[in-house]
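Hi Prof. W.,

I finally got the Cytochrome b561 and DOMON domain-containing protein-like protein prediction working! I wasn't sure whether to trim anything, so I left the full sequence exactly as given:
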Amino acid sequence: MEGRWRAAAGLSKWAFLLASLMSYIASDVAAEEGGDGDGRKGLCSTDLTTFLPFPYSNLPNMVCQPLWNSYLLRYSQSKDNEITIVLSTIYTSGWVGIGFSRDGKMLNSSCIVGWVNQEGQGRIKQYHIKGFTPGEIKADRGELPLTNVPPYVAVQGATIYLSFQLKFNTTLKTQPLLLAFSTKTPHHHRLTVHEDKTTIYFDFSQGKADDSSSGVDSYSSPGILKDRRSHGTLAVLGWGFFLPTGAILARYLSRKDKVWGIGIFLLLITVLQVVAFFTRPSSDSKYRRYWNWYHNWVGRICLFLGAVNILLGIHIADAGQAWKIGYGFLLGFLLVTVVVLEALLRLRPSAEADNKHPPFSINSIDREISL
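And this is what came out:
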């Protein structure tokens, strides 16, 4: 039974990703053909009265706008700054969420998340994002000014609807919205890591997204994403190819001066570093701390022994003073760079949320309902 459940969960994950991809492609085609800019606009005419309770089923002067992938935002804003929101998207499993942020970043934002559990019951809760690991995403907390109207979640066909009502002190205008989803169902209301996400700056007074900032990734900027890819590429080439290749060449193609101890040891721990990637526990696992210690210190030992191995090689080969000075200069430059960067990292002030003028008041009212 457990194997069947895992297989079904895997199929649901791929079905969700495929459906989202097809929706994204279809929206691009519609835009290129000069239609209404997005095929999802046709979904705005869906009759909500058949599966959503009042007031979510009846939105006066409703604004309906596509946001991202298959996400569709419906809302109605009254004169007393009360806004009723219905967010819909394609759904097969896992959770979907929308967050309100002060600065467009995930940290310290408040989110509404909905899902259907393994018993087929709908769940919708508010979460406060205090950090980047699942353990730091707190359920039943947040600063969204929810009204006394209970939030509601419903699944109609292949679409999930998250409905909630907020009341602000002033008219809600441009607001950074965080959109994210995961195909893994929360366990005991604990969210799993998102599989995709974005940030959109939406002007609720005009009923449209800010084109200049729509789709900005607040979780990891393009520069950071590029750095991570570069780091991964260099790690694979350096630890997974060049170091093992160098050790193999030195072991089997050399004819004299058989000083292999450091090289063989380096080859061993280099392979262990690569293998450790596949055994890395999740970020909120109790074993992650020990894995981090192992990964960091073995990496440092590799770098240190690599430098020692090069110095020994230059000495044994009697390469001359020029090689020693050249490598010494390179090694000194790298050490100075590391010291400076480490000092800057430790002196960098920690990011603090701007609590002086929050865009929404604190209200921790949360609801949990069943379909």
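The longest strand covers residues 82-90. Does that look reasonable to you?

Thanks,
D.
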